[in-house]
Each structure stands twice: as structure tokens, then as C-alpha cells.
Amino acid sequence: MIIQIEPNIKEAELQALTEKLESLQYNTSQVSTQFGEYIIGVGKRAFDIRAIGTLPGIRDIHRVSDAYKLVSKKWKVRDTVIDFGEGVKLGSGHFGMMAGPCSIESEEQIESTIKHLQANQVRIMRGGVYKPRSSPYSFRGLGQEGLKMWYQQAQKAGIRIVTEVMMTEQIEDMYDYVDIFQVGARNAQNFNLLDALGKVDKPVLLKRSMSGTIEELLQSAEYIFSNGNEKIMLCERGIRTYEKAYRNTMDVNAIAMLKEKTHLPVIADPSHGIGLRSFVPPIALASVMAGADGVIMEVHERPEKAFSDGQQTLSYQEAERLYKGLRQAYELRSSL
Ligand code: PEP
Ligand code: MN
Fold this sequence. Notes:
- The chain is α/β, with parallel strands linked by helices.
- It has eleven helices and 14 strands.
- It has two domains: about 1-60, Phospho-2-dehydro-3-deoxyheptonate aldolase, domain 1 (Alpha-Beta Plaits, 2-Layer Sandwich), CATH 3.30.70; about 80-335, Aldolase class I (TIM Barrel, Alpha-Beta Barrel).
- Phosphoenolpyruvate binds next to loops.
């Protein structure tokens, strides 16, 4: 049960509402976000929702029995649009592309990537400064200093930054230099981190974990929303299956299904999704046709020299062709 309440609801009205719900054996939680005030009721008893919908201070009431509620499409008429300012928007008719290296490596690399993005009207740059690596001996990122250096250049160029935050403790230091906090696959069920990102007023790109179900991904998003942050994008980045021919199995099915289950924008990450450069373009295009609102991809001036994930990283020339193809695919899908 989701009850949208008026922001100026009176204390006594709120109390009457919670008492009514408690009398029906519903547990209640209050959620305040950037955009609304909600009471979430969890219980089993069936009742006529008009008994609550007509109480003073109530804007609307919706029956949502899924494990996830606020991120469900069952109560929200319009899909969420995330506004990054200066005309950069994503979701519900706004297609978004995010591109950049797996890892931020140097000032020169940042400069070169930004030029490439600007030449192609791509407004969001990806890159890791804190890298979760399978081996502790691999390159683990330039950290906060790298982020500041990146921010200085990106800001001048009007480019937005999406980068991974690995721990709750990093949020505060990163906050001023980040436009989108990325939650990596390995942290998709780090509930402390999700809670903390729910208290932040910056968009979050939440990746699906390697073995996470669609429902688990939606419940992870619910953690963020229920803590106060509605600006969430979900990302399909491939799951681990028995297939060994490629790094991960890009679950294109999940993109189509997520679009049916949630009002949140869905982003495809074909780079990690298949993990092999030559297959990134077709899988990216397939993802758009399946309903993706955006694509995030790894791009490098010289992929063979990249500090990480070179094997799945596109060259600038390959990326340019793909940006055009993705825009065309999005137009085609929108016209169908
Ligand atoms: C990344 O995008 O840099 C990354 C590490 O991806 P994932 O968390 O999906 O493995
Ligand atoms: Mn990578």
C-alpha cells in the first residue's frame, strides 16, 4: 500500500491515518523524498481503500502488494525522468548515453575522452576512480585526487560525471565532484551503502549484481527510494551463468521486464554485459530495442593500452559509429 500524503498534512491527520492503518494490522513507515511524502503500509488484510483515501491530508492511495513498492510501476502514471541540468535528461522519452574508460588513468586521458564525447554530443562521462578488482594486485584507481582532476575538466566542458562509490564513508568526500553515484555489481546488496545513497540528493546508477534476480535489483532500488532519493537508474550489466564463451550473459530479457515493472529508467551496460569488444555494438543495439532508456559503455583512445577492461573497450572510431546507431535505434523503437 502506498499512500501519497499532502506535504502540509496536519499532525492530527497523520496520526488519524496511522491509527487507522494500525487498526487494520498494517505496519507503517513514512518516506520523505525530494518529490513527495508517502506512507507505506505493509499488511495482509483486505479493505476498501476509500476508507483511507477519503481521509483529510491524503492525496492518493494505491494498492501495491509487490515486495518493492515505491519503485513499482503500479502507482506512478508517468515514468521517471532524471534531470541533470543544462538540458541533460534521461528516461521517459529522453535517451541517454554515458561513455568513457573503465578507469580514470591520467589528465591526458580525461582531456582526450572529453573531446571525443563533445564531438559526439555525449554529455555523461563514465570512469572509475575507485575500482573493485578481482585481484588486489590490479590497478585500483586514482582515488579522490583523480576525481578532483576529472571534475575540473568535466565541469568546464559541461560533461556530467558518473563514477562508482564503493563505501558509505566515501560519499561525503565524493559528493561535490560527482553527478551520478554508481553502485557496482559487487555492492548491489550493500544495504548500508544503499541506505546512505538514499539520503543524498544526487542520482544513483544502481547495477544489478552478478547473481541478482530482477526482484532483488528492484528491492535494492527500494532501499534508496525509501530513504528519500527518487533519482535512481537501474543498470543491466550481465549476469553470471554457466556460459563461458563470454564474460557475462547480458540479460536483455531483464531490460524488457524491468521496463514493465518499474517507472525508473533502465540503462544497459553491454561492455560488462558481454565483455568482448566486437560484440558490444550489437548487444547495445539489442538493448535499446528491448527498451533501454540509455546505454553506458567503455571507450578509450587506445583500448589495447587501457589499465583495465581493454578487451571490452571500444576505440573512438567504433564508439562514434555506435552512438549514431543507438540514436537511430532509439528513434526506430519510439516509432514502433
Ligand atoms: C564498472 O562499471 O566500472 C564496473 C566495475 O562494473 P560492474 O560493477 O558492473 O562490474
Ligand atoms: Mn570495467
